[in-house]
């Protein structure tokens, strides 16, 4: 699945990285605890989170995570947007809860990180 | 593949806002040199965890990246206060991080175990005067 396809499933708004929506994602994970994300997330994984701070983007950068989806209508901070632009991470927002956003992607065939 | 590269970066205690800048710099150097992306990813994760540890727990110090023909080395040297119980710090879930840090999504006690998992060799020495963490990643 591409980032664009995942974004369509979740009715996402694109905050930045609109020009990089054709990148593939091979799995997804939902987490607010970046300590956990750092231990199990694989490259090309889409990260869904309700945590809003620039360290979420930094964590994605280290893990080669190409896309972050902020759930439940969360609004990214300015430093988060700037770091996402600088590092090439696509930043999206959606209105679904973390549970429902994960469920919708899973239902459409995007597997968990293993 | 260049050999004999060495660069040191200063880590400021408590400067959580800039956490990850040094690791991002290390990642970009390794990319520029043309290191295998899978190895870069492991180095980046370990460096980021180590950088967070130094910012959260230490009085500050230096992170040094060394690259030779067969391996990448990262040395984290701080000026204290040391890790009281390294055996406990190596246990997943053991944390002495403040609630503020945990509110930001970190400090869950996964750092050192994750550093060990991502490196090929890890050595840690610590006393109240400081901690020295040495990490080695094989390139070939």
Shape of chain B: globular
| Biggest sheet, spatial arrangement of strands of chain B | 1-2-3-5-4
**Major β-sheet of chain A, in short?**
5 strands, mixed
Helical fraction of chain A equals 25-40%
Q: What is the total tally of β strands of chain A?
A: 5
Shape descriptor of chain A = globular
Question: How many strands, which pairing sense, and closed or not: the largest β-sheet of chain B?
Answer: 5 strands, antiparallel
Structure notes:
The complex is a heterodimer of chains A (114) and B (140). Chain A has a single domain (3-107), classed as Udp-n-acetylmuramoylalanyl-d-glutamate--2,6- Diaminopimelate Ligase, Chain: A, domain 1. A five-stranded mixed beta sheet of chain A has the order 1-5-4-3-2, sandwiched between helices. The longest helix of chain A has 10 residues, at 54-63. Helices cover 39% and strands 18% of the residues of chain A. Chain A has five helices and five strands. Chain A is α/β, with parallel strands linked by helices and 114 residues long. In chain B, a hairpin with a 3-residue loop joins strand 2 (61-67) and strand 3. Chain B has helices at 21-33, 37-57, 86-89, 99-103, 111-118; strands at residues 5-11, 61-67, 71-78, 121-127, 130-138. Chain B contains five helices and five strands. Chain B has a five-stranded antiparallel beta sheet, covered by helices on one side. Chain B has a single domain (5-138), classed as Heat Shock Protein 90 (2-Layer Sandwich), CATH 3.30.565.10. The A-B interface holds A 32-39, 43, 51, 53-56, 58-59, 61-64, 87 and B 16-17, 19-20, 23-24, 27, 37, 41, 44-45, 47-49, 104-111, 113-114, 117.
Write out key terms for the chains shown.
heterodimer, A: 114 residues, alpha/beta, Udp-n-acetylmuramoylalanyl-d-glutamate--2,6- Diaminopimelate Ligase, Chain: A, domain 1, 5-stranded mixed sheet, 39% helix, B: 140 residues, Heat Shock Protein 90, 5-stranded antiparallel sheet, 5 helices, 5 strands, 36% helix, globular
């Amino acid at each position: 699945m591409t980032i664009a396809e995942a974004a369509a499933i979740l009715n996402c708004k694109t905050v930045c990285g609109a020009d990089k929506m054709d990148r593939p994602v091979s799995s997804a994970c939902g987490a607010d605890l970046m300590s956990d994300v750092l231990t199990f997330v694989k490259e090309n994984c889409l990260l869904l989170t309700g945590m809003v701070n620039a360290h979420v983007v930094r964590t994605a950068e280290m893990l080669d995570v190409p896309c972050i989806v902020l759930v439940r209508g969360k609004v990214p901070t300015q430093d988060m947007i700037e770091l996402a632009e600088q590092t090439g991470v696509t930043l999206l927002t959606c209105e679904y809860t973390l549970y429902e956003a994960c469920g919708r992607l899973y239902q459409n065939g995007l597997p968990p990180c293993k | 593949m260049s050999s004999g590269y060495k660069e040191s970066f200063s880590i400021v205690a408590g400067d959580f806002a800039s956490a990850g800048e040094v690791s991002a710099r290390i990642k970009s150097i390794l990319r520029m040199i043309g290191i295998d992306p899978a190895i870069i990813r492991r180095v980046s994760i370990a460096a980021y965890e180590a950088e967070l540890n130094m910012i959260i727990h230490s009085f500050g110090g230096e992170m040094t990246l060394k690259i030779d023909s067969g391996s990448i080395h990262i040395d984290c040297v701080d000026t204290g206060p040391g890790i009281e119980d390294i055996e406990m710090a190596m246990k997943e879930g053991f944390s002495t991080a403040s609630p503020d840090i945990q509110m930001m999504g970190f400090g869950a006690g996964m750092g050192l175990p994750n550093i060990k998992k991502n490196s090929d060799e890890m050595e840690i020495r610590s006393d109240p005067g400081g901690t020295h963490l040495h990490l080695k990643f094989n390139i070939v």
